[in-house]
């Protein structure tokens, strides 16, 4: 039976992954942790502990206390905040991951590590970005993601730790908002469409980025952790994507449901520079071949669900 610990449970991905893991493996077997003191469903639906990933002693204590065998390590700083606070992004991104990997080595845990489209840079081929290609990111976020991919590979090769991970694109969801990413606009735009029928976009028209709806992202993480390890050649850096669009395309899709929706542009120079250094669309055939990655949601279906969920709630 799996005993799972999740770091960063209160974040955009963690808040939904925790629920799905609890329904699959039993609530008592999935320990939600976060640096912040949380309230609500995460805390009420199963075990929850406060944990700062920089606190190695507490991490080890929790792994022993709950006999953890699998860690989903989600605690991190997103790309735009990482440019405001690069030292913090390094500290949490790298030292946090190092602590998790060391604990996993010592206590024989498997580790899921989310890398990102941010692991690529200006010299990476932008279209159909290959699985194995040039990675020279120009953001601290990207530096931590490339380093993280390498560290996870190292712990697998050198110590036999069962590390696995994907390069997530921008993730769109309606439960918990992302905080400080470059792709956040693709979440904000739905809230703005429902609440004000108007949105001012921080990225210009023509900025294409890979994106994915949360149910596919959750499914990807769990499916990869359950995959037959003998079939995995890449392990810690699978390109995965479900769609690629620019602001004009998502606005047009929203207008099919909210015809009066208006969008104008006020480009944020930091986010524009980051987005311009990332792929337009990744090639995710390695993930499809090695562990059966096959997303369900495209822009049309995601937009229907996002708007209907937010229209009921907001
Ligand atoms: N969503 C992330 C960000 O924009 C990219 O992985 O920072």
Task: Describe the overall structure.
There is one protein chain. By secondary structure, the chain is an alpha/beta fold. It has 2 domains: 4-169 and 213-239, 3-Layer(aba) Sandwich (Rossmann fold), CATH 3.40.50.720; 170-211 and 242-281 and 296-313, UDP-galactose 4-epimerase, domain 1 (Alpha-Beta Complex), CATH 3.90.25. The protein is 44% helix and 18% strand. The protein contains 12 helices and 14 strands. A 7-stranded parallel sheet has the order 3-2-1-4-5-7-11, sandwiched between helices. It has a 3-stranded mixed sheet with strand order 8-10-12. α2 (41-44) links the parallel β2 (30-34) and β3. α5 runs parallel beside α6 (140-159), α7 (185-196) packs parallel to α9 and α7 (185-196) packs across α12 (299-313). The N and C termini lie far apart (39 Å). The model has no long low-confidence stretch (mean pLDDT 97). The structure holds serine. Serine binds next to loops.
Give a topology summary.
Blueprint: E1 4-7, H1 14-25, E2 30-34, H2 41-44, E3 48-50, H3 56-66, E4 70-73, H4 79-84, H5 86-107, E5 110-116, E6 127-129, H6 140-159, E7 163-168, E8 170-172, H7 185-196, E9 198-201, E10 209-213, H8 214-226, E11 238-239, E12 243-245, H9 247-255, E13 262-265, H10 269-276, E14 281-282, H11 285-291, H12 299-313
Parallel strand pairs: 1-2, 1-4, 2-3, 4-5, 5-7, 6-14, 7-11, 8-10, 9-13
Antiparallel strand pairs: 10-12
Helix pairs in contact: 3-5, 5-6, 7-9, 7-12
Bound molecules: serine (SER).
Give the tally of structural domains: 2
Distance from N terminus to C terminus (CA atoms, Å) equals 39 Å
Main sheet attributes: strand count, strand direction, barrel closure: 7 strands, parallel
Please give the CATH class of the largest domain.
Answer: Alpha Beta
Under the CATH scheme, the architecture of the largest domain is 3-Layer(aba) Sandwich
**Overall shape:** globular
Bound small molecules, by name, code or SMILES, are:
serine
């Amino acid at each position: 039976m799996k005993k799972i610990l999740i770091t960063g449970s209160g974040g955009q991905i963690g808040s939904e992954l925790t629920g799905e893991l609890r329904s699959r493996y039993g609530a008592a077997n999935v320990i939600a942790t976060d640096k912040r003191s949380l309230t609500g469903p995460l805390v009420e639906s199963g075990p929850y502990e406060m944990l700062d990933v920089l606190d190695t002693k507490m991490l080890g204590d929790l792994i022993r206390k709950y006999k953890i065998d699998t860690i989903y390590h989600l605690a991190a700083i997103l790309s735009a905040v990482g440019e405001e606070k690069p030292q913090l992004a390094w500290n949490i991104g790298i030292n946090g991951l190092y602590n998790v990997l060391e604990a996993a080595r010592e206590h024989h845990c498997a580790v899921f590590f989310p890398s990102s489209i941010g692991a690529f840079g200006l010299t990476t081929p932008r279209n159909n970005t290959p699985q194995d290609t040039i990675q020279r990111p120009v953001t601290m976020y990207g530096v931590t993601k490339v380093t993280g991919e390498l560290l996870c590979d190292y712990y697998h090769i050198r110590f036999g730790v069962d590390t696995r991970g994907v390069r997530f694109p921008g993730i769109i969801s309606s439960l918990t908002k992302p905080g400080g990413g470059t792709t956040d606009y693709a979440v904000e735009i739905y809230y703005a469409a429902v609440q004000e029928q108007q949105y001012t976009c921080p990225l210009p028209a023509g900025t294409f980025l890979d994106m994915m709806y949360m149910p596919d992202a959750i499914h990807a993480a769990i499916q990869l952790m359950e995959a037959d390890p003998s079939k995995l050649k890449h392990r810690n850096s699978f390109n995965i994507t479900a769609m690629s669009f620019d602001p004009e395309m998502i606005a047009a899709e929203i207008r099919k449901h909210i015809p009066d929706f208006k969008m104008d542009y006020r480009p944020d120079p930091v986010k524009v520079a980051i987005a311009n250094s990332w792929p337009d669309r990744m090639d995710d055939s390695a993930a499809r071949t090695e562990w059966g990655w096959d997303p369900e949601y495209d822009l049309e279906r995601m937009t229907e669900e996002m708007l209907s969920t937010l229209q009921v709630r907001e």
